[in-house]
Write a structure and sequence with these properties.
The structure holds two protein chains of two kinds. Chain A is an alpha+beta fold. Chain A has twelve helices and ten strands. Chain A folds into two domains: 169 residues, no CATH class; 189 residues, no CATH class. In chain A, strands 1, 2, 3, 4, 5, 6, 7, 8, 9 and 10 form a ten-stranded mixed β-sheet that branches. In chain A, strand 6 and strand 7 form a beta hairpin. The longest helix of chain A is centred in the C-terminal third of the chain and has 44 residues. By secondary structure, chain B is α/β, with parallel strands linked by helices. Chain B is built from six helices and ten strands. Chain B has a six-stranded mixed β-sheet with strand order 6-7-8-3-9-10, with helices on both faces. In chain B, strands 2-1-4-5 form a four-stranded antiparallel β-sheet, covered by helices on one side. In chain B, helix 3 crosses helix 4, helix 3 packs parallel to helix 5 and helix 5 packs parallel to helix 6. Classes of the chains: A alpha+beta, B alpha/beta. The structure holds adenosine-5'-triphosphate and magnesium ion. Magnesium ion (MG) binds next to helix 1 of chain B.
Chain lengths: 394, 222
């Protein structure tokens, strides 16, 4: 009851702190979101050796481009150190999207489900509802969380891919990394889509000039290694022994990913630092102003016999309550803002990630800074004589 | 109860030249006595009360509360001495705006660790005596000047301090309210407190044990 009134006396202080903390948390949540994305990508590329077909001249890398024929996949699986090769097809859903940061694209991922996923860090993908794909699935799809949200899909929904209907049998948890925007299907379904999508491929198949069968239609493979083997060494061995492939060393791919995201990382550190400085300054300033505003009250309390210690304790308790309420309010405000933006403005892309470490960190930072500012201001105020404090506050 | 000897206090003018406000003030007020100090504006009356009540340090001289030379105490001990010995009344009341009338009165007990149901009863009893008990849940902004000063009086006497220092306690009040406060101060003196009142009102001198005039930085008996 009394503490409620104390807070009412500090209403503007609480509001000021809430707004400062909200800014800090919102910026922090955006940076956490991107950090999670980069980390997720890094974990992915470090968990497998990625092999792509070389050749057809339509671009290289993850997405549609080269072909990795069945014979090549067999050859890879015979390289010493290799354990588990999963043929895959990656098709950009909308080929016109730029290649910049391909991992953020919407992709159809066809997986050979007769082989367990070789990626050490993503043996299985977390399913939120329904189930994951299994061998023998036909015309069914598992979709990533963002993909599902952007199209209003849930288990049982139907989805058209290259003019064929698919039933959604599973929706993944939000992973805050690439698979959020994936549609996963069996590799046979993906092959059919590829052929339907790619006129050049149809021409080649029709001419019979390359003697391709369906099992040759793979854009790449995820390759695992035996426990104890060095993935980079295994990747190099594949490169040496199997012609016609693009092999990425996991460590090199990770480095590449990091350097291509280095700009974002730096930007985020900058934004984060700025958020802390601006949010922190505004919080400290608000708190100190709240104390200076009560300079006359301090004089009166000292006239009534309050010692510096008693006043310090009082101010500390009040600043704690004020920054706690303001901090929690700010976190609530930031979350509401983030929810609103993600829901209505971000086209189902999650832009904010309110990680526990961010929230706890922001609250602890606010409380400590608020207490420090309050104590500093109190020390300044009690350095005046009570008579002077009363005169100045008049 | 109160003994001051050779109090000296100077302020520095903005230009840097010292302004001598107190130039050796001697004053003794026993329990049960009321000393009334008058003097022209700017003569240093408020300064004297502030120094006597340890709200401001003098540049020289000694102050004794009973057998304690309080002018020589450290910061924290001075604070405790204020809480234990002195009750203040100010011209501008100085109630805390965020607290109710009753809470303002009880604030006096907080720093001397006397809060409790008995103190609360005593506070309400004091407020009844001066006729503001029915206003105890009001905030200062909801009270008239006379009511505020009565609340401030209850706060000043809650701990039953042996010394009361009142700086123009009726300066912002009408005659009727001023009389209530002066009466209440006389009542405290009868109950054994030493009281120092700074006032321009001739009525303040009624019942005074001693009348002083502050001039040239020293107290004169007119
Ligand atoms: N903090 C200060 N700094 C400089 N000079 C001061 C300060 N406080 C008071 N003075 C000066 O000391 C003198 C005495 O001031 P004081 O307030 O004690 O007078 P007073 O007798 O209470 O006057 P009044 O009757 O108007 O209240 C004045 O000349 C005033 O200008
Ligand atoms: Mg004065």
């Amino acid at each position: 009851m009394r503490s409620l009134r104390v807070l009412r006396g500090y209403l503007f202080t609480v509001l000021g702190i809430a707004i400062g903390v909200a800014g800090l948390v919102a910026l922090g949540a955006m940076s956490e979101r991107i950090v999670r994305f980069i980390e997720g990508g890094d974990r992915f590329v470090l968990g497998q050796i990625s092999v792509a077909g070389r050749g057809m001249g339509m671009g290289t890398g993850f997405t549609a481009g080269g072909i990795l024929p069945a014979a090549t996949i067999r050859a890879i699986s015979e390289v010493p150190g290799v354990q588990g090769v999963q043929a895959q097809i990656m098709l950009p859903l909308d080929p016109s999207t730029s290649q910049f940061m391909t991992v953020t694209q919407e992709l159809v991922l066809g997986m050979d489900l007769s082989v367990p996923t070789p990626n050490r860090h993503y043996r299985t993908l977390p399913v939120r509802s329904g189930r994951f794909l299994r061998q023998g699935d036909h015309k069914v799809a598992v979709v990533g969380a963002s993909f599902a949200a952007s199209r209003g899909l849930s288990v049982g929904s139907h989805l058209m891919l290259e003019d064929e209907g698919y039933e959604v049998v599973g929706v993944l948890d939000r992973m805050l990394t690439a698979p959020d925007r994936f549609v996963m299907v069996s590799i046979d379904d993906a092959r059919a889509q590829w052929v339907a999508k790619d006129r050049l491929l149809r021409t080649v198949l029709a001419s019979g000039g390359m003697a391709l069968t369906a099992s040759d239609l793979n854009t790449g493979a995820a390759v695992g290694w035996r426990d104890g083997d060095d993935p980079d060494a295994v990747a190099l061995r594949i490169k040496e022994r199997v012609p016609g492939v693009n092999v990425q060393l996991p460590s090199e791919l990770s480095r590449l990913l990091r350097s291509s995201t280095a700009f974002f990382s730096a930007l985020l550190i900058g934004i984060g630092a700025l958020a802390f400085v601006i949010g922190g300054l505004s919080l400290a300033n608000t708190m100190a102003a709240a104390v200076f505003e009560r300079i006359r009250d301090f004089g009166v309390k000292r006239a009534l016999g309050a010692t510096d210690l008693q006043l310090g304790r009082e101010v500390l308790a009040e600043s704690l309550a004020v920054t706690m309420v303001g901090g929690l309010g700010g976190i609530g405000l930031a979350r509401a803002l983030g929810w609103f933006i993600d829901r209505y403005l971000a086209q189902a892309q999650q832009l904010f990630h309110f990680s526990p470490r961010l929230l706890v960190g922001a609250l602890a930072f606010s409380i400590l800074l608020g207490a420090a500012a309050a104590i500093y201001a109190t020390a300044r105020v009690v350095s005046l004589s009570p008579a002077e404090a009363i005169r100045r506050g008049a | 109860m109160l003994r001051a000897a050779g109090l000296v206090k100077s302020y520095r003018a903005p230009a840097g030249t010292p302004i001598r406000v107190l130039a050796g003030v001697d004053l003794t007020v026993k329990g049960g006595e009321i000393a009334v100090v008058t003097g022209p504006s700017g003569s240093g009356k408020s300064t004297l009360l502030n120094v006597l009540g340890l709200l401001e340090d003098g540049d020289g001289g000694e102050i004794w509360f009973e057998d304690t030379r309080v002018s020589a105490l450290g910061r924290a001990a001075k604070s405790r001495a204020r809480g234990r010995y002195v009750g203040f009344l100010f011209q501008s009341f100085l109630l805390l705006p965020s607290l109710t009338a009753l809470e303002n009165v009880l604030l006096a007990a907080r720093y001397v660790h006397r809060s409790g149901p008995a103190t609360r009863r005593r506070a309400i009893g004091l407020m009844q005596e001066v006729g503001v008990a029915d206003r105890m849940d009001h905030f200062p902004a909801q009270l008239s000047g006379g009511e505020q000063q009565r609340v401030a009086f209850c706060r000043a006497v809650l701990n039953d301090p042996p010394l009361l220092l009142a700086d123009e306690p009726t300066g912002n009040l009408d005659d009727a309210n001023g009389a209530v406060i002066l009466d209440a101060l006389r009542g405290r003196a009868r109950a054994g407190a030493a009281v120092v009142v700074v006032s321009h009102r001739p009525e303040a001198a009624v019942g005074a044990s001693a009348l002083y005039r502050l001039r040239g930085g020293v107290l004169e008996s007119p």
